[in-house]
């Protein structure tokens, strides 16, 4: 197309205007993105300071929101502690919030209060900013793990720069404090279901270094007083040092639990065949080919249907007559996975839960909680609303039918300890109640009669941004016995000795072989 001179002049002017406009818009866009970048940088983990102080008014505002939310939404708030006692603790805590505090100091004020609820699914977590900051600042934990035996404290693992400290050595003092006092102080911070103590023991055994740093503060070095071989006190100044594994060394496979350390080469566990994955591991015993050990360390398994089908198919093909279900340190997970496992081993229809219900839904805590869509779906679609406002999950109480194909009907033993929590404790409780299995080990960390769980949102406090994790449903197991506030009590309680711990022995599995030799089978 041919343009006249005036048209050409207009086109040049228009083109220049467009280019200038685009340039201006680009610069504005670039400037806007720079501002956003600066804003994001200000919100980065580097901008967060754990030393930031919150004023008493801010702390008390957060506290009142936490209290009102727990009172409105926690279905087991007064299950194990009376309202009068808890109210008194609430009042005492708010009175203590009378000075500026950091996030960590505020959290330490809340921990003893939340422990009084006696709900293992309820706890206080750091803010998201703190969690992001922590990823860039490796904490300096206390460099020793310890265990308690007859009210004395001993070294279980040494991660320090002092090789003179040995496993089994008695610890007398830590930073000038009696070791026994330190141990019991940290143990009291652990929240368990009801009046259970084994969960506390297990948690501290697994996490003593972290709990010590959390409660007493982070340090470069720590003073530890121990008894030497002559029973004389000797003090070391220690700090964390990563231990390098020697090449070609045979390293024990340790399950971090109270009184449960299992080496890889114990004859009782030496398998002739193994199946499964890191979540569920099936071993056929070389000492008795009719016995298999199913080590299940979690119910949080995505492909649990396929996995269980494969495992129980192998149990049938290997003609297993005695099955050991190892639930030690199984912290729970999916209810559906737990129910399916019970269906594979039950020989009659059964009910896993008597009831699963929540308090009337309240807007008190709703604006401060996460996962609102999922929570609303659970409360208003899955759960049925009763006339009084409570909500129940009906499908949880329906009768479960045993799996026909590959279902197991032989003798069954379950190994438990303080790390058996939530869904794994409920599994053990139901199978014991229905007389389907013999329980061996220590009391489970989760409640025998039930727990508060199912839907567990986080309540974010608006000032400090601490997160309070608390469940919205109370689930009662099939157990109809009175609730005494404890976990599943084993039919054969096993107490570990110091020798068992230090030598990586496993008396639990040895008890199974002892019962088999004695002919004391489950169905007698």
From TrEMBL:
<dbReference type="GO" id="GO:0008236">
    <property type="term" value="F:serine-type peptidase activity"/>
</dbReference>
<dbReference type="GO" id="GO:0006508">
    <property type="term" value="P:proteolysis"/>
</dbReference>
<dbReference type="InterPro" id="IPR005151">
    <property type="entry name" value="Tail-specific_protease"/>
</dbReference>
<dbReference type="InterPro" id="IPR029045">
    <property type="entry name" value="ClpP/crotonase-like_dom_sf"/>
</dbReference>
<dbReference type="GO" id="GO:0004175">
    <property type="term" value="F:endopeptidase activity"/>
</dbReference>
<protein>
    <recommendedName>
        <fullName>Tail specific protease domain-containing protein</fullName>
    </recommendedName>
</protein>
<feature type="domain" description="Tail specific protease">
    <location>
        <begin position="262"/>
        <end position="495"/>
    </location>
</feature>
<dbReference type="Pfam" id="PF03572">
    <property type="entry name" value="Peptidase_S41"/>
</dbReference>
